[in-house]
Amino acid sequence: MTDENDKTYDVIVLGAGPVGENVADRTAAAGLSTVIVESELVGGECSYWACEPSKALLRPVLLYGEASRFPGVSAAVTGPIDAAAVLRHRDYMVADWNDQGQVDWVTSAGITLLRGHGRLAGARRVTVETPEGETVELTARHAVAVCTGTRAALPPLAGLDTLRYWTSREATSAEQVPGRLVILGAGVVATEMATAWQALGTQVTLVARGSGLLGRVESFASEMVADRLRTAGVDLRFGSGIQMAERPDGPDGEVHVTLADGSRIVADEVLFATGRAPRTDDIGLDTVGLAPGTWITTDDTFTATEIDGEWLYAVGDVNHRALLTHQGKYQARIVGGVIADRAAGIALDTGAWGRNVGTADHLAVPQVVFTDPEIGAVGLSSEDAARAGRTVEVVDYEIGHVAGAIQFDPKYVGRARILVDPERRTILGATFAGAGVAELLHSATIAITGEVTIDRLWHAVPSFPTISEIWLRLLEAYRDRKANSGGGE
């Protein structure tokens, strides 16, 4: 270990979110002295303003919807959701935005925590401005890992700097339920927050430039979400954009939103859910020859490809490979091993399934959208396959025809789709849409990552009566199609 006056470490990690924590955990466990630098809360965006608080808002909403539709239970649902109780639960899940628990973990893992804003200052060097106004200079013997994540990307609107608006942070941490909310965007943040706030009592208008929601998932799944949002009372306005937003009566007044077609909406809050940008604009990238505010390109060991010497790593959102916490943590585990092996002079294992290579980023990236209904997707979508010119066989099955789904909800509405490689007879993609499908996703991820053939999947027997029986029904549908086409099975 390094004494407190020694500012040279084996590894410097910029950013103490889940990604940075995992990098530091792996390098410290390998015996490398490691310091992690954080300017905000230890635990990062996911813990306090994204994954954790958003799901804390959404779980009661989804549970309420399921209960209100279930025989024998629906009659007991006699009133609206207790929004104040939901917000208190959200506060509990984020520990009231107190990071002491995560600080304690960092310390217990043998990692040095330095609070402040860290910036690169040349090769293997970092300067940190502490909250007390001091400047600390750090040197890394082996590696610097940039794990600073992303921030909300904002639209190019005039007067935005004087407009009090919401990003995902304000949407997940709001202390009051707004009466009216305009959401600009059609992705995961937009649809999840529309789902949550509408159910908590907000009048929501969602404005999207495109013709639908969630453009990166199968259209059948996104259309189900749109239908449910409309039924819940969300005003969906597709094929439009925002022209102007202002609060003519001051920052505490109503927000007036003018759309591209000239129509106007008056609301209490406006949420910009228009994508993410790398949090690399003020971390000293220029001192090592990279452009500030850009994504950092890496190879599959997550080593920055434009930097000589194999000392700079970009892990998680900042490399723009997969903007998901679980993928960032996966990358972090890879990077921790890469740094440790290089420090020990061990040749890297970078074969197709080597311990030092991020294969999963190319093969099977799972994601759950916690809307009503839930969407779970991994691997290719049918549109992905078409764009790539890949021949696939598309197999669909209505989840509501499965006994376990009927036990879940007698009027269950949902669909499953798998994409099969006709030559290798392996699954290339899977999408599930329906209540409770999030827990189906890992089995699909394993099937794709493990390149399990259809023939072997026949022998993976799902329990009855569970929703996982959808796997059997999909395989039967595939077999029957082959039999009807004369292909046999």
Automatic annotation (TrEMBL):
One annotated GO molecular function: oxidoreductase activity
The protein's required cofactors: FAD
Residue ranges of every copy of the FAD/NAD(P)-binding domain listed in the record: 9-326
Keywords in alphabetical order: FAD, Flavoprotein, NAD, Oxidoreductase
Keyword match Ribonucleoprotein: no
Catalytic class of the enzyme: oxidoreductase
TM helices/strands, residue ranges: none
EC assignment: 1.-.-.-
SUPFAM superfamilies reported in the protein's UniProt record: FAD/NAD(P)-binding domain, FAD/NAD-linked reductases, dimerisation (C-terminal) domain
Pyridine nucleotide-disulphide oxidoreductase dimerisation domain sequence ranges: 365-471
Keyword Flavoprotein annotated: yes
Signal peptide stretch: none
Annotated family: Belongs to the class-I pyridine nucleotide-disulfide oxidoreductase family.
Protein name: Dihydrolipoyl dehydrogenase family protein
Annotated source species: Nocardia jiangxiensis
